[in-house]
Design a protein that fits this description.
Helix content: over 70%
Structural class: mainly alpha
Number of helices: 7
Strand order of the largest sheet: 1-2
Low-confidence stretches: 188-194
Largest sheet: 2 strands, antiparallel
Shape: elongated
Length: about 210
């Protein structure tokens, strides 16, 4: 998903060359006279133009996670990717197979959402609540679960929390998948309408 952004940064040497030419000529010419001042300025312009040809702009490459052309969408996608990376790491560390399966579904749906919004930034508004609340809250709950499991915390409260997380993990995964499905609602409606038109055309032709 990461992209290389290339920007052109002009060299500062032409400015130094122009300043140097102006200062030197000011030192040797009577710049209190108009012709001398104009000559110094002209020499500075020529020095700038000459140095600019010799010293072209420098191309700087910067790697960014996302580059949709919309800064706040890029920031949202970057944060979502970080949350999903955390979810993946938690999944690797937790041994429970049913919970792991649910977390795998969450990650798969989440990454598909990221890819969809990256391809169509206009859909970002449809996942704002998911990105700002549902995803980080789900990851936070699973982090707390992993902390309890790692520390092997015993007791009724800890057991109740673990059981609740394990019981609701599949529902959370389904919610993630529903969010992904909602992104394609408009496309599904358009496709359904196209299929209906096609079927009517075929019927009209006796096919």
């Amino acid at each position: 998903m990461s992209k290389i952004i290339r920007t052109r940064k002009p060299s500062v040497l032409p400015y130094y060359a122009a300043a140097l030419a102006f200062v030197v000529l000011c030192a040797v010419l009577p710049v209190y006279r108009l012709w001398a001042l104009l000559a110094a300025l002209g020499a500075a312009v020529l020095a700038f133009a000459g140095a600019k040809k010799i010293c072209p702009p420098r191309v700087v490459e910067t790697e960014v996670p996302f580059h949709t052309g919309v800064d706040d969408v890029d920031a949202m996608l970057t944060e979502m990717q970080q949350q999903l990376d955390t979810l993946h790491a938690l999944n690797e560390a937790l041994p429970d197979p049913q919970l792991s399966a649910a977390m795998t579904r969450m990650e798969k749906a989440g990454r598909s959402i990221v890819e969809t919004v990256e391809a169509t930034p206009a859909k970002a508004k449809q996942v704002r609540r998911f990105a700002n609340y549902y995803l980080p809250d789900a990851v936070n709950v699973l982090q707390q679960y992993a902390k309890l499991a790692k520390q092997e915390v015993r007791g009724e409260n800890a057991a109740s929390i673990r059981a609740e997380v394990e019981h609701n993990a599949a529902s959370i995964a389904t919610a993630f998948e529903n969010q992904l499905d909602a992104l394609y609602a408009a496309e599904s409606m358009d496709l359904s309408a196209d299929l209906t038109v096609l079927q009517n055309m075929l019927k009209g032709q006796g096919l």
